[in-house]
Amino acid sequence: MQVVIIGANGFIGQNLRLQIEERGLAGVVSVTRDTSRESRRAALASADLVVHLAGVNRPRDVAEFATGNADLTAAICDELEASGRAIPLVYASSIQAVLDNAYGRSKRAGEQAVEAYGVRTGAGVAILRLVNVFGKWCRPNYNSVVATFCHNIARGLPISVVDPESALRLVHIDDVVAQILGYVRDGVVASGLVEVGPVHDTTVGMLSDLIGSFAASRETLEMERVGTGFLRALYATFVSYIPPDAFSYRLTKHEDPRGVFAELVRTKDSGQLSFFSAHPGVTRGGHYHHTKTEKFLVVKGTARFGFRHVITGERFDLVVEGAEARVVETVPGWVHDITNIGSDEMFVLLWANERFDPQLPDTIAAKVAE
User: pTM for the complete prediction?
Assistant: First the structure.
């Protein structure tokens, strides 16, 4: 199968082209603004599917809306029809196609050209009514507030929020690409209007606050719930705008004669992750919890975990080598400690199911060996 992507060097085009190629779904022919009309016509004539992503949304002259959207789309449809084949077409339009402004009228005219092409040829034509698309590789300081905020905040540059209550409707690039990949994978395009989702509703103020919190998390270590949904997509987008010289950052290390302790991240509701070291012969811990639980992973060295039940006095010891990839859990009501019984420095990862609260530490000092 051969897919022709018109606007292949744009934001959506780059993401789509990469995912088609990495999945081996089809051969891709890229058409850009530098492609001659003759080369474009030849590419369209040999296509099995055409994805039309090119367009104008920030012209210097308002007349470019008509030439870059309506006229270009009509020309593409004419060239497809001239091939004598009913070639399926996917057209990236906008929710603004229903609005009476220059951009909206030009996109609606493009939709009408696509619809007419489908009627004349019997080809399947899908018109994607897109809200604001965000994600990696979108051009900042152009037409995407998400890209602009991510780019500027990642570099410590100012942003402008005129109306924090201004509503935004957003769709992530991966969801747009997934919709188009379905047509490529199936080789079938059902005609009609398609509203790609999920659509995420937010405001400019909420957007700026969230992206600001992502940047601040390098200092505060406090992370939003970035594992699913909108926050997952937005966080990935923010990170994609971090410049290479800022790919890494330092943690605050707390050092004493026992070794080093440092926190890595604190989550909203899934605890915190940290690491510590211990010199040979050093014992850490010596306390118990009522509710807090922890998971320890020795990544280097040899550790002896000691346990004592606070009521029954039952004792239990456990030796773990770093090479074992073995998790040791602390259990409420058991005093526990960890001793480096090896000859080298020991390093341990530690996850606690709750963030440390100095007002309610749930950490009661006690010795394993009474």
Answer: 0.92
